[in-house]
Amino acid sequence: MGKLLREKDWSKTEFGAMTKWNQTLITMVSLIMSSSHPMSLWLGKDLTLIYNDGYIPIAGARHPQAFGQPARTFWPELFPQLDPLIEDVFQGNGVYSEDAQLIMERNGYTEETYFTWSYVPIPDPSGEIMGFLNRIFLQELYSSQACYESTERILAERRLKTLRELDTQSTIARSMSDLGKCINTAFTFNPYDVPFALVYFCNTEYGTSLLPGGTGGTGGTRSTERTRKSSLHSSSATGTEKTDPAVWAYHLQDVVGIPHGHNLAPETVEIHLNEMDQDEVHLWPFRKMAQEQKAIDIPNVSAEALEGITPQGWPELPSHAVAVPIVGARDHEGKDIMMGMLIIGTNPRRDFDETYETFAAMCGRQIAAAMTLVRNIEQETARAEELAALNRDRTSFFNSVSHELRTPLTLILGPLEECIDDPSLSQQHKGRLDIVGRNARRLLRLVNSLLDFSRVEAGKMACSFRETDLQKLTADLASLFRSAIEKGGVKYTVDVSGKARPVWIDRDMWEVLSYVDISDLENRVQHNRKRFQVYTVGAYYSHLLSCG
Predict the structure, then answer these.
(1) What is the pLDDT of residues 220-275, one digit of tens each?
(2) pTM score, two decimals?
(3) Distance separating alpha carbons of residues 348 and 367, to the nearest angstrom
(4) Strands of 145-289, DSSP E
(5) Domains and CATH numbers, the chain
(6) Where are the alpha helices (DSSP H) in 34-175?
């Protein structure tokens, strides 16, 4: 820059030849030229621009023509924003601006930039303000600079917020349809970096790799405006469909910034694995993306193709896009499977660089992780629905069986009670028939408990609590098994001694519980005739059953 400074014909400027410069101007020019940080002087009524080597990246393609020329000539797009600040500086006031957005045209296109700078007024020997410079100031984060471009940091923070929003939204999705809406919501928050987006999910059941050498090979692409019909039916609970393994179908799950039905947003894309020689039939490189399994740069999207699309964020439409494969599953051969496709229109006021490519790839990976999670949720939901269906069938079965058993038991109990009431029957036989009747009624109550189970499953079961002598009721229930146990030559004693106190219980449910306990005891007696004891301790009673 020292060479440009010396070769410039300053006699044609309002300051005249360098030999006529005042000491203040010479000192300020020497100061910025010796600094390694981006610094510049804006001098005189024309705001003649003098800058150092560190300022060259800020000038961009306008260097070196901008050096020594009026700033308004080379930065006309900035002055609507800077004029109020410059007017303040010429009033003798310093200006500081942090992370201010400046829309510049320094590299041949309208560019979104952010800068932190300060303006310091420079008085001439007479005390008049002859211009200003970027005063050097300490910034803990950015180092000591008079003008610091914070564009990359601001863009990184904004894109990180988008990724965070994408993660937050994805956690509430419980189906693929929900996930598409969540992605839409996350991208809508950042129309500057995502002016439009298309999200496609695979409708085909995973199993065949799309990589070269995978079963079925690679193939062509067909895009169609029809929705899922014929072979493309609605997704099952797992979100997949069993269709022709040679055809991979991708359905447009959601779209941001492009109206549904637009030529750039086909509803269904079919990748035919057996059509090896097919070229792309659409602007988006679906087939190439499936083959290479990596992000594909799509430059020069024509204005004709974008016709009918309303700009989002910036007033102009993007002419650049990137296609990102959504890869998160593996086939039976261990190869990656493309679960979906993401197409993003890039920021029209930034170059498509490595940082944006990384941002797009991270969006794809985050969506892939969310898809895997949602598919697992859908599978768990499907299993839960299957179990619920089995429970309903079981309840229906119990209900039917209990009704079928009640009828013969009722018919048995009628004649049995008539026999017990017969005066000609001996007391010994009456006692035996009474035991039969009590057990038949017990069996009827157990059958009724199956109906109770059906009511519990349906959420219609209600308990009926009554004050009960629990010791006496338990002893009566245990005595029903005396005949069966003593018939095997085993001494059967029921001991419910202790302080009696009434408790409130549902008698029918207690009978079921006691029947299960005593039936287990009976089975043990039948298989082991040695002396043993069984203790059952409840909240309100204890009893000792001793066999010997």
Answers:
(1) 544 443 333 323 223 333 344 444 556 778 899 999 999 988 999 999 888 776 66
(2) 0.66
(3) 24
(4) 147-149, 196-202, 220-224, 247-256, 268-272
(5) 2-149 (3.30.450.20), 157-379 (3.30.450.40), 463-548 (no CATH)
(6) 56-59, 71-74, 79-89, 151-170
